[in-house]
Amino acid sequence: MRKLCTETNILLFLAKITLQQRVYLCREIKGKDKHSEMASSSSLLSEDQFQCSICLDVFTEPVSTPCGHNFCMACISGYWDTTDLCQCPMCKQIFHLRPELKTNTAFRDVVEHFKTIRIRDTDESPAEAGEVSCDVCTGTKLKALKSCLECLTSFCETHLQPHQRVTGLKRHNLINPVENLEDRMCKKHDRLLELFCRTDQTCVCQFCNETDHKTHHTVPLVLECGERKAQLGKMERQIRQMIQERLEKVQEVKHSVELNKKDAEREIADSLQVFTALVHSIQRSQADFIEVVEEKQKAAENRADGLIKELEQEITELQRRSTELKQLSHTEDHLLLLQTFPSLCTPKHTKDWSEVSVHSDTCLGGLRRAVSQLEQTLHEELAREVRKLCDVELKTIQQWSVDVTLDPDTANPFLILSMDRKQVRFGGTWQKLHDKINKLYHPERFVNNLSVLGKEGFSSGRFYYEVQVKGKPEWLLGVARESINRKDAINMSPVDGFWSVYMRGENIYEAYASPHVPLSLREKPQKVGVFVDYEEGLVSFYNVEARSHIYSFTGCTFTEKLFPCFNTCDEELGPNSAPFVICPVNHAD
User: Fold this and answer.
1) How far is residue 299's CA from residue 361's CA, in Å, rounded to a whole number?
2) DSSP alpha helices (H): ranges in 359-401?
3) pLDDT digits (tens, 9 = 90+) for 524-546
4) Contact call for residues 148 and 173 (beta carbons, < 8 A)
5) CA 224, 226, 232, 238 torsion: positive or negative?
6) pLDDT of 172-182, one tens digit each?
7) Which residues on adjacent β-strands are paired with residue 72?
């Protein structure tokens, strides 16, 4: 944008405007100091000089009346349209014929140039891509500051001033600048959309409300917006809550990762300890075996050395006698032969070596006995380490203990539940259950299965509970899926939706897998712990008091809720009145 820097530049513009304006501007120029030639035109030309006296804004399409006053084309035309007399608003001169006004193009150029200079000297800036521009600006489109819903026009800071000064315009509804203000008009009636039809969920104008939507429930936009804002506030709070919950879940997952990392490090350390102990045990057994073998070998060698020395002595003696006999056999002295013969023919005492031997099977059976001893040692060592690890494992999974109560609506009529729903036993008598509905046929009740389920089900995560089975000659315990068959006799296996272990008599234990898996337990369980990891597909059983593992179902796929399941069994093996007792978990064990 150019500056009006010199008097010459100003005079070029004066040549194009009216005499009155030229005299005024020249007077302004002459009154300036010579050093002000380099000053901007905004200091020479005041905004008041280019302001319409009707709209009080900078001229838009300026026109001059015969009396010499300037107005906006729209302002003066609108003014004369509302009056009977055609007169000048400034000097009140009456025109008998309405003047035919035309835009003063020269003055308009000066005004536009002034607007450009003013834009440069103010904080206003041209509208950029994506920004709403002023609808009034004729030259460079400035960025709109507000949009008027009454005028359906967007205004920059300069053109917005009448709405801030004029009383009638102050009542207009101004909003932040928006594009396509025509979209806020009714397409059918060309009226402002100021009502909301709740019946059709659409914005309507007043004419729509009186015609097509006459019987509908309509409210002012501000009322509907108030309710929608309330809904938005509620949704925003819900979203904040969801964000908070997810942030907490992130922390929970991170904490879980840290716990898993610590668990992994602990398990690695424990495994190193266990396997190191086993390796040391093997190395110790190997060293003991080698020592025994070497001692036996040394003893055999010592004995062989003694035998060899003894044999060598006898060989020497026999060789000497052989020489004497040979010499005597060649002698010519008959008397000597007869005198010495008895002594030479009588053999000296010699050892019978036919029964003497050196065995080469010194270690026969030694390796087998050593390995057998090693097996026993390892078994004892492993059993000790397994008990230690199982104890750690139990302490870890007990942190997921849950409060289990029994669901009376699922209990077989032969079963009797305690008042606190923590115990169940076989009653031996079919109970007649009557209520507002015949609960005997309740869809959740077991009929041909002496079972009852826990009240709460689990569809994710981990859970653990403990059940006392002391005094029961027969029992079945585990978890069941929600859709199990509760009316017919079934196999109680994973195929039927059960994951359970079974005890019968003194030493018959089975995991009800497909097929059943016999279990060998050293100690009879008095209290059984049941642990489920839903996502991992794991169901594990523990002897709580012995701190030992009973059995685990692994690789399971769960798609429904899982419920704790208790089958008391009947009295086929004798009295079975001892109850299942759901026990609180003692984390100090």
Assistant:
1) 13
2) 366-397
3) 999 999 999 999 999 999 999 98
4) yes
5) negative
6) 888 888 887 77
7) 62
pLDDT tens digits, residue range 433-458? 654 444 456 778 898 889 999 999 99
* DSSP run (H or E) holding 265: helix 221-329
Beta-carbon count within 10 A of 558 CB: 20
Q: Please state the pTM of the whole predicted model.
A: 0.48
* Cα–Cα distance, 221 to 458 (Å, whole number): 48
For the chain, the maximum distance between any two Cα atoms, rounded to a whole number of angstroms, is 204
In SS3 terms, 391-445 reads as: HHHHHHHHHHECCCCECHHHCCCCEEECCCCCEEEECCCCCCCCCCCCHHHCCCC
3-class SS string, 276-315:
HHHHHHHHHHHHHHHHHHHHHHHHHHHHHHHHHHHHHHHH
Phi/psi of residue 102, nearest 5 degrees: -135, 150
- Per the document, the length of the chain is 589
Enumerate long-range contacts of 90-99, CB under 8 Å, 24 or more apart.
Answer: 90/53, 91/67, 93/65, 93/66, 93/67, 95/65, 95/66, 99/65, 99/66
Cα–Cα distance between 473 and 476 in angstroms, integer? 11
Determine the Cα angle at 444 with ends 438 and 448, to 5°: 85
